[in-house]
Design a protein that fits this description.
By secondary structure, this protein is of the alpha+beta class. The chain contains 7 helices and 8 strands. The strands form 2 sheets. It has a 5-stranded antiparallel beta sheet with strand order 4-3-2-1-5. It has a 3-stranded antiparallel beta sheet with strand order 6-8-7, with helices on one face. The longest helix is centred in the N-terminal third of the chain and has 42 residues. It is elongated, with a radius of gyration of 31 Å.
Length: 258
Amino acid sequence: MGAMWDWITNHWNDDWAKFVEGILLLLLSFVLASLVRGTLRKQLTRPHIDPQVALLVSRIAYLATVLLGIIAFFTRWFGSPTLVFGGFGFLALAISLAFQDILKNFIAGMFLLVERPFRLGDEITVDNHTGLVENIQMRTTTLRTTEGEQVLVPNSLVYTGTIINRTRYPTRLFTLTAKVPDSVAVDGLVERVREQLKSRPDIAKDPPPHVGFQPSVDGGLTLEVRYWLDYRRNDPLTVQAAVSQQIYQAMHSAEASP
């Protein structure tokens, strides 16, 4: 009986020691993964390197290091690499069934980084939410709205949904409308406003700005102005305010004499 107890104790102590060593290897892999990810992010933060490429590479390196740590943990614990790799297939199946939504969002996030339908900093509309893309995380895509709100959209919804990229092209169409007072003489008003817009250096020359009249529901006229703007170099709100001021001045100068 004593010999059997000694054998159990020795094997139990040996298995416990292997388990502790495996845990230490696993913890070490997390530390190394964080160091590798941080180092890659610093090395890849250069002007000619796409931020999404840097994010993708650092994420793959982090996951690969953690995966090696998990394999090292089980290999040290069970002492058989063949058993560990054979059991990983069943483990992967169990994880995929238990965490379908998380796995789906993770894979969708990786495809978003690879295919790049939008870039970090782009303004997109998805799932009726519009905002700047701040980050593509493991599970969600982070948007920041113009109101300063943070919106977290699941990656699977972003990947399978309809995406409107509002900053894909360098110029964007802006439209302004202004009610024409009855006291304003409309003859030559459109030409004057159009020439003023053409003289502005911040408004695109091609296509040229459009100015025209539209009938109002009350029987009057509405002046419609449409122009293309390089929003990356010019603040849309500032230009909009300046154009509105020019329209007001053109109407004020065209007021009919009493």
